[in-house]
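Entry type: protein chain
Record version: 2
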Amino acid sequence: MYGKTVSDSIANHISLLNDKQKSILYEFEVLKKNGFDAAPFWLKNKNQFPQFNENVRDELAKQIFANSHVIYSPPKDSAIQFWMQTQLLTNWMFYLSAFIAVCALIALFKRYWGMLIQFLINRLAPLLKFLFSPVLLTYELLLIGAACVFYGCVIDEFVMRTVIIHLGLFLLWSQSTAVFTKEYWVKKYVYEIENNFWGSDPWETVKTISFPAVIVTLALFYVLYKVPEDIFYNYEIVLSGIAAIYALPFWRSLEKYIYPVLFPFVKDDNRDRSINSLGACTVIALIAFIALAWQFNPVFNNIISALVSLLMLSFLILSCRINHKYSYRNYYYMQFVTVVFLLSVLIYSYSFRLNEIIWFSLIGGSIFIIIKYMEIFSFFSDWKRGKAWAWKLMGLAGLLWLLGKGILYASQILFIVTPAF
């Protein structure tokens, strides 16, 4: 009972302290923790408190120190605020440099890979000819790709880690595809992917597309387990996972029953088969998004964000006029569906304070409006021809200005003025 009485007394004392008194006790405990003589500080400030003994004072200071969370807000236009903004800018520069480096590496592989292999085969014999034969080299590069993913996760520097991991992912995908297709040149197994997606042999489709996508997905799960702070790998997991699942052959026979959800006027259009496949895949991804969102579990937030970004890209593509050349009933219907989707995502993300998805919806809505603005004029004339192209360009500039103002206004409402639900 004695211990409980003391605990209740301390709690009562803390509840009666104001913010200034709590701050003084916090500073007092910091001085003691760091080995300084805190007596002069207490003598200077003890007149701010009611009379209580040193034991109560010490216990109050300990409890406030243990249960405090310090938030530092730099002054406006201060050197520290400028430093924090500089850190943010340089982080984005690092992201951009990593992305450019990955793209450059892939382009260099595509351009010089065949030439390099051919040089090694023709010039370096006999041992190197054996070591660098297409079959053996494929397995060697597959192991190198696995090593890049495994050891890339332990690299501390962000840009180098991102480049090494993505190089490993590319090698895992390309060389596993070469193994399954038994085609060891890039151009040949890329052709096999295109040829087998709608091919008549289901097993070839699974080997060519699904198996390599599963390998990449497992590698991405390992990367996220080892480097959870690099959240952009969630987007790549969703993309590779969709590729692995949707490449399964039975979806080809189900597509004709799924894509009419987005293209209900089936007899009106003569679309490319890839657009129908994208429509069916979008419906499946939309169902997955609704199922995950209905769980109300923050564990799925990153996956939901990735699905939303891919769904927005899909809807922007499917709603383009170029995919509805022969009839406009499906075109008008897709505009309605896209607007409903964008508004639904904005309401959902706002309700649960998912700031990343809020930004996706604002950016996706802006891109949709710009595309529709350009398409409106394309109904009557060519953008590049006619005397009014300068006025059209001026209208586009005004539209961008209005969208920028609208996003600023919306961000004030969504992020600043209204509290979280």
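Comment: The chain has three domains: 2-66, 100-245, 249-421.
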